[in-house]
Design goal:
oxygen binding, Globin-like, heme binding, Globin-like_sf, globular, mainly alpha, 189 residues, 0% strand, Globin_lamprey/hagfish, 7 helices
């Protein structure tokens, strides 16, 4: 699931312009998500803790827990749990809306604009988060996230990352730096 960053601008990279999800892929994502979402709070916390442990620079956007180092402390943070719930709810809305391109675009536009303009989060963190989500789902739900299901999720997150990047560009985002830690997995997978 890990990709290394290539030279140049990524032109010709199939992940830059993913094809639309097929009905089969959409159903695989929705079916697997329904089971994942039953453990919404625990999965959300696991995702954010993994993000912050593996990519500590991502904590800089969270004044409430940016100085917490220990995973156990992160797990027990009420603010982290609250944000994890928001992330999972946004993902749930996206997954439930996969049949409506307009609804998906609307959600991604709202998320992208708020993160670009209000929170000033570099869009690379959406790519990083996508990879972390795929890792956690693959580990925590290995019997559910088969290679075929994982491929559908990968395609979904490539679409999400591309859409978010487009929203950032529309919003006038100019900072396109990448964090140095674990840069080989910072691309959409």
């Amino acid at each position: 699931m890990e990709r290394t960053r290539g030279e140049g601008d990524g032109e010709g990279d199939p992940l830059e312009r993913p094809s639309p999800l097929t009905d089969k892929e959409r159903l695989m994502i929705q079916d697997s998500w329904a089971k994942v979402y039953q453990s919404c709070d625990d999965v959300g916390v696991a995702i954010l803790v993994r993000l912050f442990v593996n990519f500590p620079s991502s904590k800089q956007f969270f004044s409430q827990f940016k100085d917490i180092e220990e995973p156990e402390e992160l797990e027990s943070s009420g603010q982290l749990r609250k944000h994890a719930r928001r992330v999972m709810s946004a993902l749930n809305t996206l997954v439930e809306s996969l049949g409506s391109a307009d609804k998906v675009a609307s959600v991604l536009r709202l998320v992208g604009k708020s993160h670009a303009l209000r929170h000033k989060v570099d869009p690379v963190y959406f790519k990083i988060l996508s990879g972390v989500i795929l890792e956690v789902l693959g580990e925590e739900f290995s019997s559910l996230v088969t290679p075929e299901v994982g491929a559908a999720w990968t395609k979904f997150f490539a679409m999400v990352c591309r859409s978010i990047t487009a929203v950032y560009e529309e919003a006038g985002w100019t900072k396109l730096s990448t964090p140095t830690e674990r840069s080989s997995s910072s691309e959409c997978v």
